[in-house]
């Protein structure tokens, strides 16, 4: 009996391990878009049916960027979906479909779009007023919720035909996609929610939509880019060592051999290469460096006072193809709970863990340094912050350097902790510890020989 029982127990044990592994894989795949510093961040799309037409309805679609520090920059968002039946778009205001599709079946008047899976983009600033609606025409740019909540939403209006004309017959679209401007966002299922309510201009009357649908889209850096987009370098006043970004932080191993994968800073053909690439492209044209990142963030421990310490932060743009408009930084460090003063940047505490204040968001001052210029002499911004020392303050073991750094919502590559600048006494103590270990080994091994 025991002979047959042992193989059965072994089989059940292996089966259980395999099942747990598969479940864990499924679990982690579903949390790819989770961001610990912005756990509730998302882009919510609301589809409000405002009135019925002879063969459909008129709806206002609004996108709300509820992400604290991640924004949508130029060339802007594009929103797509698949119709449930054979719907068409008769007309649009505040946005437009990128393709009209096959409208050959219409004789008298042609719809704006006949595609079963249309893609909509925002209109540009300066669009004629008769083509606008409220909160439109920003070129697809949506600011982050913390940085500029007044410009964190965008809207467009569309008249839909060949659909139902009541709440019971109309069908919701499906398979929503959001490009902002590249990949990275995953949209969930469409949900029917309580109708949105709107205040009139005098705030004395409330109207509501006939029907409202809602879609939530979340961001994953892994889906957006195969390699990181930024890295961090470190330095301090107490050590001459400048810790650079790790080599090939942004995936240069396979690209360095390809001609045109990067641009030499002193190249005589630099101007022609940059002009031919197209400005404000989300595909980087980077300067040739050891790290091959479009952006480098440098943290320098500058001064030490009796009750304070001072840090200088420098952001350098190595991307010849893009100006970073309304850029932002997020730092995680335990001493941000005692922020004293910041110079030439805006600052806000994020508090992702409730009472623990260890995360700070920094961004440029409007019309001063909110534009991070393309690679070159002007392609950097910098500021200094003054922090009050708390009870746990120390320069030892890299405590004064940030734990995590984000640029424009993407996590930057940090140097390995053993490469951080050490205090002079810490390095000597390290050498002394090694000497002690070697001495003990010699003391033990010499008698054996």
From TrEMBL:
Its BP terms in the Gene Ontology are: cellulose microfibril organization
UniProtKB keywords: Glycoprotein, GPI-anchor, Lipoprotein, Membrane, Signal, Transmembrane, Transmembrane helix
Bilayer topology annotation: Lipid-anchor; GPI-anchor
This entry carries the following GO cellular component terms, namely: plasma membrane; side of membrane
Location relative to the cell? Cell membrane
Q: Where is the COBRA C-terminal domain?
A: 229-421
Instruction: Report TM segments.
Output: 6-28
Superkingdom classification of source: Eukaryota
Q: Which family does it belong to?
A: Belongs to the COBRA family.
Q: What is this protein called?
A: COBRA-like protein
Organism from which the protein derives: Juglans regia (English walnut)
């Amino acid at each position: 009996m025991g002979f047959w029982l042992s193989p059965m127990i072994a089989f059940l044990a292996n089966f259980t391990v395999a099942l747990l592994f598969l479940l864990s894989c499924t679990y982690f795949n579903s949390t790819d878009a989770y961001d610990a510093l912005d756990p509730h961040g998302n882009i919510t799309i609301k589809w409000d049916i405002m009135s019925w037409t002879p063969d459909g309805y008129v709806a206002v679609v609004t996108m709300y960027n509820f992400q604290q520090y991640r924004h949508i920059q130029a060339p802007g968002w594009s929103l797509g979906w698949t119709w449930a039946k054979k719907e068409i778009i008769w007309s649009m205001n505040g946005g437009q479909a990128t393709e009209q599709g096959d409208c050959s079946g219409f004789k008298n008047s042609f719809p704006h779009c006949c595609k079963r899976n249309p893609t909509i983009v925002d209109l540009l600033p300066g669009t004629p007023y008769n083509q606008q609606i409220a909160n439109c025409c920003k070129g697809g740019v949506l600011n982050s919720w913390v940085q500029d909540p007044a410009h964190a939403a965008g809207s467009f209006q569309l008249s839909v035909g060949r659909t139902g004309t009541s709440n019971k017959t109309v069908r919701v679209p499906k398979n929503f996609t959001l490009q902002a401007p590249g990949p990275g966002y995953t949209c969930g299922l469409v949900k029917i929610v309580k109708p949105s309510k709107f205040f009139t201009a005098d705030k004395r009357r409330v109207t509501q939509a006939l029907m409202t649908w809602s879609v939530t889209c979340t961001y994953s850096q892994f889906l957006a880019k195969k390699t990181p987009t930024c890295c961090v370098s470190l330095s301090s006043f107490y050590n001459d060592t400048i810790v650079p970004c790790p080599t090939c932080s942004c995936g240069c191993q396979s690209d360095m051999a390809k001609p045109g994968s990067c641009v030499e800073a002193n190249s005589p053909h630099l101007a022609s290469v940059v002009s031919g690439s197209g400005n404000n492209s989300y595909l980087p044209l980077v300067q040739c460096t050891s790290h091959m990142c479009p952006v480098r963030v440098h943290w320098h421990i500058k001064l030490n006072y009796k009750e304070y310490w001072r840090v200088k932060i420098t952001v350098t743009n190595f991307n010849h193809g893009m100006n970073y408009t309304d850029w932002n930084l997020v730092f995680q460090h335990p001493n941000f709970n005692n922020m004293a003063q910041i110079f030439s940047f805006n600052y806000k505490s994020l508090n992702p863990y409730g009472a623990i204040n260890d995360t700070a968001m920094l961004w440029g001052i409007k019309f001063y340094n909110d534009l991070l210029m393309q690679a070159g002499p002007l392609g950097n911004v910098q500021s200094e912050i003054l922090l009050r020392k708390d009870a746990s303050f120390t320069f030892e073991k890299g405590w004064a350097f940030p734990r995590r750094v984000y640029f424009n919502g993407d996590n930057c590559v940090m140097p390995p902790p053993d490469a951080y600048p050490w205090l002079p006494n810490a390095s000597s103590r390290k050498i002394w510890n090694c000497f002690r270990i070697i001495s003990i080994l010699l003391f033990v091994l010499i008698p054996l020989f």
